[in-house]
Design a protein that fits this description.
The protein has 10 helices and 17 strands. By secondary structure, it is of the alpha+beta class. The chain is elongated, with a radius of gyration of 23 Å.
């Protein structure tokens, strides 16, 4: 995706989005921009637009399986706050009541118990606040030191991923090149491994390769980011995409700064206060201003641009036949979708997938369910259904 503005081959017109009731987001790392706006790419060119209307509340299933580990937490009913994470781990290993200090959150009670060694590995049952899981390290590692580095990181993980963590195996404990496998339990208690490998690209950014049985993606973040939070949040969003469609997305990037093309678009829209929140296209979704907008509705909309481009023979941001479907349906899915065919497809994908998963959208006059979407926009639904079923062949990858 270009970082400098050029004249789009298929220019679109941006409109101010209507105000809607937004579902509050929690756990964000650096909420640096009040209000916020969003931007998307058209034909590989940035096509920004105004925010103020994001609107989703998914219904994630909470894991119901029993935890793998059940350390005795009675001893941490009234624990003392340790001076550091390593001291908390050392105290917990001695069986003392303690709390783990956390930089950006309230300290949490900690209990640690070593299990019987497993070959060349050492395993520990951990109780961290309400979390219960195992940590496995190499026998030659400084276990207390590794736990002291890893536990504050794991405490950052957002829901619903956090409650599903059952075991974390540390393959490489060094912070700069950390590698680990996290095993998550689904609603039936089945464990699914997720592999994460970190590499510092330069002094300012780090790249994570995140993979599971259904594919992989790269996460690019500021080097000083809250690693586990951003990895878990990005994985959580990526996992919302149907497995057959995930190959379209190669990279999720987070940048603490603004979109470099904001100045151009501020002049274009005669709005000196204009700022972008996110962009999408060419196999990537990009989030500006830290993690403020790294959340479900923005992600699905921006992935919609990536997906539309994947099924376009002309390398635009809409699948072949989409504009004919718009004309036949004779009604936009959202007011923001009226902006252009590019935005119409992204909004349609976002609403369709959310309803398919049993979630709700707080757009104007929303359909109650997926059947309602199909009844209102049958031609759009036919194309989306063909994509989801694998009946359309991707044009680009």
């Amino acid at each position: 995706m270009p970082t400098t503005p050029t004249s789009p081959t298929n220019p679109t017109t941006s409109i101010v989005r209507p105000t809607r009731t937004a579902v509050p987001a929690t756990g964000l790392r650096k909420p640096t921009v009040p209000g916020g706006t969003t931007a998307t790419a058209s034909g590989g060119k940035p096509t920004p637009s105004r925010n103020g209307d994001r609107r989703v509340a998914g219904v994630p299933a909470k894991p119901t399986a029993e935890p793998v580990c059940r350390p005795d937490t009675a001893a941490i009913a009234a624990p003392a706050l340790a001076a550091s994470a390593s001291e908390a781990v050392a105290a917990a290993l001695r069986g003392e009541a303690t709390r783990l200090p956390l930089n950006d959150a309230e300290a949490q009670g900690l209990a640690v118990r070593e299990l019987i060694p497993r070959g060349d590995q050492r395993a520990f049952e951990v109780g961290l606040g309400k979390l219960r899981f195992e940590i496995v390290v190499n026998e030659a590692s400084d276990a207390a030191g590794v736990l002291g580095r890893v536990l504050p990181m794991l405490a950052q993980i957002p829901e619903p991923v956090r409650s599903s963590v059952r075991r974390v195996t540390i393959l490489q404990p060094d912070q700069a090149t950390m590698a680990y496998v996290a095993e998550l339990a689904d609603a039936r208690g089945k464990l699914a491994p997720i592999a994460v490998k970190r590499a510092v690209t330069n002094e300012k950014t780090a790249t994570y390769t995140v993979s599971d049985a259904n594919g992989k993606f790269e996460l690019v973040t500021p080097a000083d980011a809250q690693d586990a939070w951003e990895v878990a949040q990005a994985f959580n969003l990526w996992a919302m995409i149907p497995p057959a469609l995930r190959g379209a997305l190669k990279t999720i990037s987070v940048d603490d700064g603004p979109n470099p093309t904001d100045e151009y678009w501020a002049k274009e829209y005669k709005n000196p206060d204009f700022t972008s929140a996110a962009t999408g296209g060419n196999g990537a979704t990009n989030f500006w201003h830290g993690t403020k907008f790294l959340k479900e509705d923005y992600f699905l909309h921006e992935f919609g641009h990536v997906l539309g481009q994947t099924y376009s023979s002309k390398n635009t941001m809409v699948p072949d036949g989409w504009e004919d479907a718009m004309a036949a349906d004779n009604r936009s899915v959202t007011r923001y979708g009226e902006n252009s065919p590019t935005e119409d497809f992204a909004e349609s994908f976002f609403v369709y997938l959310t309803l398919q998963k049993g979630g709700r959208v707080t757009i104007a006059d929303p359909p109650a369910d997926l059947a309602g979407f199909v009844a209102r926009w049958p031609r759009r639904a036919a194309i989306l259904d063909a994509i989801f079923r694998g009946e359309l062949r991707p044009m680009t990858r």
